[in-house]
Amino acid sequence: MTTPRKESGRVGSTKSRTGCDTCKIRRVRCGEERPFCLRCTSTGRRCFYRVQPAASVPNLPQLDNYGQSSHPERRAFEYYFHQAGPALSGILDLGFWSGSVLQICRLEPAVWDAVIALSALYERPPVHEARPFSLLKSPAAVRHSYHHDALVWYSRSLAALRQRIESGMADFTVSMIGCILFIAIELLQGNRNAAMTLYQQGAQIMSSGMEAGGQTAPSLLLSTIKPLFQRLGTWVLVIRGVRDDSWIPGLDSMTEQFTSLGEARNVLCGLVAEFKVLNTDVKDHWHEGIDDRLQDSPALILRQNHLLQQLQVWYELLTSLQPIQPSTGDVDGATATLLMTYLSILVETRACLDPSQTTFDQYEAEFIRILGYAPAAIASTCNPDGRQPSFTFEMGIYLPLFITALKCRAPLLRRQALRFLLQAPVVQGLYMCTPTSRLVAILIALEEDSTISLDDVASLEDLLGRPGRIPTARERIDGFMVSSQEDENGDPQPWLNYTLRDLNIDGSIWISQRSVRLPALANTQ
């Protein structure tokens, strides 16, 4: 592989080599990557450059592939450089999306093709054109010529990288970056199954590469790509609910202090994964007989207490790194997102061994705190024009708002959680906020009025506009899933299958499983 030129290989390098202000304050050598320095963004620090006259700031990096490309390809790359890359994942990951990816695509045609394919789909995401509930089971249809161009570039990238992998000529880091870009491309089409399959394949490559290379693996792989795949593995685990043979993230060891928000996020994702495994085992626990439950309870309680202790340590380390003011409005967006996730998992962990959903009523203060952090978290992902990006690779505030809307039964609070969810990026990693928010709205309506006819509901606003009430213990939904059946015309019809759970007087568990046909809610966005 050709070694990059020292000067022209840097994104946005200048002759002055003045560096960013943050590196000057830290008195370290700045890599001068634009628009954000990797030394800053890789550690979660904010990166600042002094404003220069527009004529002296280069608009695009020096790229070997750029001058040889067609006009549509150059346009797609420019859009990625100025719009898609900076917006993909927020401040904590700009070092990867606006730094490493741009640097490597300069010399790797397979990565170049993946970048321009991602950019073309990002500008007009197919996932935004699909009916909300259709995305729960199938990807969006590709209808436009610019989408077809993107898929041609995507196929070209896939073929090139696959050929290099099969011939044993693929660079380990390039393979992993290509896999991440491919996953993003599939998610922009609403194809979660393909994205999770790509994750499994990438996890196998990652696992074998780490075993072979160990600590001698490239620094970019160890510092950025490995944690990114660990986080992605957490969200795959959350969706599937069970472990499989793919490379599942292990819990990063809790150190004496966090050195960055990025490190705090990585550890928190490990705690989320640990909770998901515990919660899955608890759900199986409720289907056991009384004797088996009595036998299994001590081990589950021990795991619950251990996780609660780990969450407490995590919070103390975060507050040492980033002092938290009493006012929830006095934190930056990245910290607010972490705190929202922490609080939601804390509540779920405390409540998971209680057979009745009414136990969540005692955590209303925690739900209020989650909602208090939401405005800062939402504002942090906005583009300069004030609009939300169409897609973020990392999951942001989806999970805490989803848990709040589903588990907090105070009518005003859960409706506020849904409204915040609709203000967030529509697609966050493996999660699609628009169809999910409509689904949760229906779950809320069923809890508050089991006799409601969903066919009479014209829009999401109709559901949110109802005053609501606090449901009784046996009206509360514990779990749900969506299935698809053909209607009388042979068209797929989505059905909502949900479970109610409560504790009987004799100690046995009351479980009721129900199904309802989902309506075609009008899109309110």
> Portion of residues in helices?
40-55%
Shape: globular
Mean pLDDT across every amino acid position: 80
Percent of residues in beta strands: 5-15%
The topology string of helices and strands comes to: HHHHHHHHHHHHHEHHEEHHEEE
How is this structure best described in words?
It contains 17 helices and six strands. The protein has 525 residues and is mostly helical. Helix content is 52%, strand content 7%. It has helices at residues 21-26, 38-41, 71-87, 94-105, 109-123, 145-166, 172-188, 192-213, 219-240, 261-286, 290-321, 333-351, 364-380, 398-407, 411-423, 433-448, 460-464; strands spanning 391-392, 427-428, 431-432, 477-486, 492-503, 509-517.
Quick recap of the structure?
This protein is mostly helical and 525 residues long. It contains 17 helices and 6 strands. The strands form 2 sheets. Strands 1-2-3 form a 3-stranded mixed sheet. A 3-stranded antiparallel sheet has the order 4-5-6, with no helix packed on it.
Spell out the blueprint of helices and strands:
Elements (H helix, E strand, L loop, with lengths): L20 H6 L11 H4 L29 H17 L6 H12 L3 H15 L21 H22 L5 H17 L3 H22 L5 H22 L20 H26 L3 H32 L11 H19 L12 H17 L10 E2 L5 H10 L3 H13 L3 E2 L2 E2 H16 L11 H5 L12 E10 L5 E12 L5 E9 L8
Parallel strand pairs: 1-2
Antiparallel strand pairs: 2-3, 4-5, 5-6
Helix pairs in contact: 3-4, 3-5, 4-5, 5-6, 5-7, 6-7, 7-8, 7-9, 8-9, 9-10, 10-11, 10-12, 11-12, 12-13, 12-14, 13-15, 14-15, 14-16, 15-16
